[in-house]
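Lab meeting prep.
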Amino acid sequence: MARKCDVCLKTIPRNRGYALTTTQVATTPAYWEYAFTHQWAYVGKQVKLLDVTIQAGETLENLVQMVASDYTPWLICDSCIKLFKVDRNQCLKLAKHFTAEMPNGWQQITGPGDLKETFSAAKKAYRSVF
């Protein structure tokens, strides 16, 4: 099965990719800026239906809750790792180790993210993008 980057969805070759925790991803404003300008670009848009203006798609709160509650690790490609201030060598080693030796052991290095910190990062990016 092809592995895909959890940020941009590009295919990641075998023995490549970086393993990050939900906290490392969700509390990074650059991740949210990317998401708000790509897969979630609709979040800041409003739609006029008859005489009522509504928010299009998911609300910011719903997206924050969804991302922060992810307890699985994030597999990140060579392009997207640049969004994060992490030890790339360590994240690369973790991805290789857990993929090869412990495919079901991911939960040992990750878990849900901090909701307050996640919302803070998302709100900062939201203000920057929209």
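Slide two material, second protein:
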Amino acid sequence: MTEPLADTIARKTKEIEPYLTTTINDPEMVRIYSKVSEAFARRIEAMFESEDSLQAAYKARFPGLEFDRTDRWHLILAKELQDAWHEHGPVVKASVTPYDRNWILAILGELLDFNLFSQVLLNLQDWGLLRYRVADVEADTAKLQAKWARKSPSPFDAKAKMVKQASKPEDIDFNHDLSTLKSLRIIPKIAPGLSFRVTPKGSTPALVDSANLSMLGVGGDQYLLVPSSFKVAYITWETTPEVMTPTEDGKFRHDLIDYPFTSKSGGDTLNSVMAVRLLAAVLYKHLPISNPKVVLPRMTSIMVMTDADITLVENFADMVSQGWITDEAWPVTYHRDRRTP
């Protein structure tokens, strides 16, 4: 007989308490973090059950606005966490601190499947850590405008598109500048209040956010301001292993998730996005809990910024390449940002 969801969450919470006790030398905080995480997990499971339940959660917080699966979810999920904290947190501590949030997210990663956890994680990470040199962006945009002022077609054309199978030097140059321009247009819109799209159980959880940060190419990271105590690294890949298994009824499953997925595109997009969400979720849990960090998944790469030992990311990449989190080896490449000491 299938274990009731509430019982599963309670059981998993109990299972990880011994680890928490050895890590946090404060039994009362272990109890609080466990209770808050358990209550928060129950809220998430109910909220993501269907499109209707997501809409109900949105309307409960923003009754006068039209339902949107991309905007304002960082606020909604933060409020849900805060409500769980008010129910089970200490009376003397009214709000969740960044340190508290790190621990709650760490526990939540053990209570939720990686699909739901990654959606919550992206909305609750401290995106204020990501700051960009906007002045340099504006200067480089002006240089590109001058370069293409008298040329046609131009990357600045309203309907400019990449040249397919570019082989001529001028086509390669066009594609490069168009890609750069897209990044330059995204960066000024990036702000701490980033909201990532949420998707109900069983649907393809696309990587979309309110500022298009997920679409920012690796080349755009040259404008990233890296605080002195932080390091930046990347994991990239060319091909994605099959992580979703098709079933006889035309749906797709993953061994770590207890509900099936439907896909209108035949499963390729679903497989790619679920693979990167799996990678991001496991990588986040692989890094030290108490250290500030940001894990940004993209369709063929993940960026990490943290003040923890950055070689942990390199070790993680090696384990992924050896088939540590997938049924087959997943060849990935580790890159250390040149500005990282």
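Talking points for slide two:
The chain has a mean pLDDT of 90.
Residues 36 and 84 are 5 Å apart (CA to CA).
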